[in-house]
Write a structure and sequence with these properties.
It is a single chain. By secondary structure, the chain is an alpha+beta fold. It has a domain of 290 residues: Rossmann fold. 20% of the residues lie in helices and 30% in strands. The strands form 9 sheets. Strands 30-31-33-32-34-35-36-37 form an 8-stranded mixed sheet, with helices on both faces. Strands 2, 3, 4, 5 and 6 form a 5-stranded antiparallel sheet that branches. The two termini are 51 Å apart. The relative contact order is 0.10.
Length: 704
């Protein structure tokens, strides 16, 4: 079934018919588990389909460090289970499977169940549930006897609990909840499945449906740009725990002990860094300053139960994994450190016996680790290598491959990657990965596309995955993939809450100025390598990256020759209205002027609409229909001033686009756009003739 979530059945049918997809279409999933070829495939150039079709384990974005592991270990420690996910643009859906693999180098995985729709993350913002489009993390749960694996599976728009035999002999639905199940684990005795769900959502939806009959009260529940209907308040649908009989599906409220077990197993929202030893010792990270953005420091309980704080620099911030040895005397941990936390280090520490000792350091991203005997089972990736499962010797750092979900990439030309490092005008560290096309010759200068705003792990498409780095390189571009510096408030320990932190960042647009300084410094370093043509640089961004693009267009005129954004905008006439009452109140707390007061002094450094007259470079907007209304003030201002701007609106999308067919369209249009403006190239495909006619007209306007 397609993953498209249109706002009505009629809209869904129209949308599917418009793109030539039958509503009954299903993903072509025969190749979900890759077959290792006897001979290596011929080396070839990368395609947009290669990137969209990457097989994923866990969150696709490697920058989400410190999240729960997607790898679930069997009770005997001999096998791991995980959910494998792959997009299929042809049917605009996803191939998903529950996979089990023996924990041994070169193991052959097997599918024990397959199917289901992509499960996306629902955030809570300003007290309301807000869909974001980002894939959610699904963690399987083994029964204590190892015979069953429970997991979340979404069919028909509702996420339920399923269970499968670990040998793959059977799988079936367990719950029949009217609303989504958000987490699942087993009771300690294996007799019940413990789940977390929000029954209040069903009642809240029914109340909103009744309200529709007499009209919706326009209050803080309505997020205007998302539609003229109320969102559900988080307070009206708290998370509740239940116990479910695995055989019958009968459900009852969880006991106090079961609720505790649910949290200990890593239920919804459990991202605290914590480890328990077999002898009861505990290790955890905690913030010792008032600011919630201050670094979390490592603390353990001593053998006598008294806390022991680690005051060494290696115990402050960046810790993404904690494990005790079998005796509960030595703590091991993974930490992001080095220049702007761009490396992964492994430490061991015997509390009370000196400072931690670093055993090894790597540029790779390593995360999601689970202790297996004396080894660690981890997810590993780097700028040129997609994520794979490895066994790591914690003492030596030696790594052996357990499973590579994307072996085809060994035959894809990706070009050379060089890491550039710098500090901005505030002394904050930053870095960027400069990607050059395959076969680039020394002394050859190229147009460059800048992609934001994290550059951890395999270089896909930047934050939000909208700007395909290696696809740009394959089309003759240099690409600078930026890792932004720490926020200006990261060293301000006196800030007491997130509101104060954000307000400080907005004051005088201080955070935007810091990020712009970093961007310009990184671009100048890339130009200094001799591989980049300063007059042909494009800039891209989604979310915070889009904010940096818009700020740069206004405050660094002439620096960039073309731009593309996936999110837009904050402008004076819309920011206090189209976001709804709750957002308007929040913006006022952050220091924004009210809707009734013109304040050009506040807005001039940042508003694209107010500066439209002076923007003389082509701008592409590819926006979700959930957010595009926020762009209209800037878009129309640019259009009225005759500026080269083009906007596309993607139906059924949220902050991050998740539909495979849309991701493919975004990738290809990105390449067309920057090829046209920075390389003067056009795709001869007749289907694109109208596109290039519009762009040629824009170019003629610029030349006047």
């Amino acid at each position: 079934m397609s993953v498209i979530r249109a706002r009505s059945a009629a809209a869904l049918l129209v949308l599917l018919a418009g793109i030539g997809i039958s509503p009954a279409a299903t993903a072509r999933c025969e190749a979900l588990l890759p077959v290792s070829a006897a001979k290596p495939s011929p080396v070839r150039a990368i395609t947009a389909e290669d990137l969209v079709g990457l097989r994923d384990i866990g969150f696709p974005d490697a920058a989400l460090l410190g999240s729960l592991s997607p790898l679930a270990l069997s009770p005997d420690g001999g096998q791991a289970a995980f959910v494998l996910n792959r997009a299929d643009p042809i049917t605009n859906s996803y191939c998903r499977a529950l996979v089990v693999i023996a924990i041994t180098p070169g193991a052959v995985p097997r599918i024990v169940d397959r199917g289901g729709e992509l499960i996306t993350y629902i955030d809570i913002k300003r007290g309301l549930f807000v869909p974001g489009g980002f894939p959610n993390l699904v963690i399987p749960a083994w029964s204590p006897d190892g015979r069953w694996i429970a997991y979340l599976k979404r069919i028909g728009g509702v996420t339920q609990v399923w269970r499968a035999r670990s040998d793959g002999s059977a799988a079936g639905l367990v719950t029949r909840s009217p609303g989504d199940i958000e987490a699942v684990t087993w009771s300690n005795d294996g007799r019940a499945l413990l789940i977390a769900t929000r029954p209040g959502k069903i009642a809240a939806q029914a109340a909103i449906a009744r309200e529709a009959r007499s009209g919706y009260l326009y209050d803080e529940r309505i997020v205007t740009y998302s539609g003229g209907y109320p969102q559900i308040r988080a307070a009206d649908a708290p998370l509740e725990n239940f116990a479910v009989d695995p055989a019958s599906g009968a459900m009852r409220p969880a006991t106090a002990d079961e609720t505790v077990a649910m949290g200990a197993a890593g239920g919804v929202g459990t991202l605290t860094m914590e480890a328990m030893a077999a002898n009861g010792r505990r290790a955890w990270t905690e913030r010792r300053a008032a600011s919630p953005a201050s670094p979390a420091r490592l603390t353990v309980s001593g053998l006598n139960g008294a806390p022991i704080q680690c005051d060494d620099a290696s115990c402050s911030g960046g810790i993404i994994g904690l494990w005790w040895d079998g005796a509960g005397r030595e703590l091991r941990y993974l930490r992001r450190e080095g220049w702007a936390r761009g490396q992964t280090a492994f430490y061991r520490w015997s509390p009370g016996q000196g400072v931690p000792h670093r055993l090894w350091l790597t540029d790779d991203v390593i995360q999601g680790c689970r202790p297996v005997r004396d080894l660690l089972l981890c997810l590993r990736e780097n700028s040129r290598t997609p994520r794979h499962i490895v066994l790591i010797d914690p003492v030596t750092g030696a790594s052996s491959l357990v499973y590579d979900p994307n072996p085809e990439f060994a035959a894809v030309r990706l070009g050379r990657v060089e890491r550039l490092k710098w500090t901005n005008d505030r002394g904050l560290e930053a870095w960027g990965d400069l990607v050059l096309p395959p076969g680039h010759r020394p002394g050859e200068t190229l147009p460059m596309v800048v992609v934001q705003y994290h550059s951890d792990g395999f270089l896909r498409g930047g934050t939000g995955d909208d700007y395909p780095i290696y696809l740009f390189a394959a089309h003759g571009f240099a690409v600078l993939s930026l890792e932004q510096p720490a926020a200006i408030t990261s060293t301000m320990t006196g800030l007491k809450d997130w509101d104060e932190i954000v307000a400080t960042q907005y004051r005088g647009w201080a955070e935007r100025r810091s990020l712009l300084s970093s961007l310009l410094t990184g671009v100048n370093l890339a130009v200094a390598t001799g591989a980049v043509d300063r007059k042909r640089i494009g800039l891209t961004g989604l979310s915070d990256g889009s904010s940096t693009v818009r700020f740069a267009l206004i405050n660094a005129p002439g620096m960039f020759a073309a731009a593309a954004i996936s999110t837009c905008c904050l402008d004076p006439k819309t920011v206090m209205t189209y976001g709804g009452i709750a957002w308007a109140e929040y913006n006022r707390k952050m220091g924004f002027p009210p809707a009734t007061r013109d304040d050009p002094g506040f807005w001039q450094p940042y508003s694209l609409a107010l500066n439209a007259r002076d923007i003389d470079m082509p701008l592409l907007m590819q926006l979700p229909d959930d957010e595009y209304l926020m762009a209209l003030e800037a878009f129309e201002a640019l259009r009225e001033h005759g500026k080269p701007v083009e906007m596309y609106v993607f139906p059924g999308e949220y902050h991050a686009k998740y539909q495979p067919i849309h991701r493919l369209a975004v990738y290809n249009r990105d390449v067309d756009w920057f090829s046209f403006w920075l390389q003067s190239r056009s795709d001869p495909d007749p289907a694109k003739a109208a596109q290039y006619a519009r762009w040629e007209a824009m170019r003629a306007t610029l030349r006047r």
